[in-house]
User: Fold this.
Amino acid sequence: MSSYKLTYTRFSERSILIQWPEEIDPKIHKDLLRYKENILKYSKDIIQVINTYNALLLAYTTIEVDYKNEIERLKLLRTKTLAIEPLQTKLWKIPVCYDVKYGLDLEELAAAKNSSIAQLVQWHTEAVYKVYFIGFLPGFLYLGGLDNRLIMPRRQRPRPQIMKGAVGIGGNQTGVYPNASPGGWNIIGNSPITFFDAKAKQPCFANAGDNIQFVAIDINRHAEIRDQIDHGNYKLESEVGNG
Amino acid sequence: MVEVLRTGLYDSIQDLGRLGYQHLGVPTSGAMDQYAASLANSILGNQPEDAVLEFTLLGPSLRFHISTAICITGMQSDAKINGRSVSNNTVININQQDRLSFGQRILGSKGYVAVLGGFQSENVMGSRSMYQNITQKPRILKNDQLSILQLTLINRQPNAHVNTPVSHFNSAQLEVFKGMEFNRLSRVQQDLLFKKEFMVSKDCNRMAYPLEGCLENNLESIITGPVLPGTVQLTPSGQMIVLMRDCQTTGGYPRILQLTEMAINQLSQRAPGEKFTFKIA
Assistant:
């Protein structure tokens, strides 16, 4: 059972930050997602709870919060949080085209790793990645679980423009650029999937706690999926899991 | 409809912001100076969430194609209707074809124009605040046609006028709370943080106000955690960055201070080169 030492701090005039030990650990993450569920279920005056690897930020609708009492209430709620059922999560299969047309840094990365492109792709598609949270840019998933053999420092010079859907590696992180933006990661492929659609009822398909796996597709299939998405008849594959 | 004859330095439609979507990585956005934007709406009798036009350092030039009433707040810069000077913080009646223009900046940095019923630009995720990849337009451009409602002013108090204290625009001290990583600073650094004068850098924008005047930094980065508008980050070079309304939702630099809501409004009114100190709220 979870016995982490949590700290509760008033972060701003209308928010409280709850922090776990400063570690990237799936167990901590699972524990905080459960607590998050409970807080959302049993609180009024909270607009939203944002989670990262080891923190929950509780945003209140009003500045008229009695923070001392509220923190006591949250601590009490914490003692009840252990009983709830495990979270239902999904495993999303994300198609990625690892062609050098999209994978601008594949050759450089393969040379640096003294390996073949095919080998890099295998390592990148074999791993199951945990979605820790969405942040930085709308629809940008912070993923954990990159194969150690693929760790690569960010590029010395960031590129001024990286394509929407670009899949990159930066240090021990991997991720997908949901929209065109400047960026310093090593680009290894491109996903035709839309990671963020402001007009959609659910703007981002994934939730914190879900898992994803990348599936290699060729350049023709990439174009085909893109086309299906444009015509609204593509459905992303997923499986139900429990953690 | 309101026609944009000429843009200022950076014009956009803003309201109270896009609340409740930060867990998807969506910035809060909204008027940089929420106090001034709300004041404009309240003088006109609008709803608090009605959208206003925000401009920076230099105002746009607008032609109104329907009659309405407006209120200008925030930055003072010799506003004119058809060449005749008008005051801030009061109701101004507008006839069809009237032209609003702004002159040289006198005080402040962010100006607001509210119209009766608010600007009717597209509402995405509960807000009309413009932001790249969320709203179709990230900002207002020349020749844009901004839609507004056909409304007549009722219950007008003829001489309603509210004063904004000058200190709102040039306050020498900004009130802050200690940030999450404040206690990791040495005593010397902590003292310096409240003694030293900091200056707004010329690179300031709606996302962040970098500050000139470094603080020696030997803190390690933190693992990425939540940040908010008003969070002051200490970067590895020792430069401090105050995050503003369009900021990202998470960050990895130590969070050494948190501005109060009013201090965010006040900082947004400071221009590059202006100085201030921090003070515990």
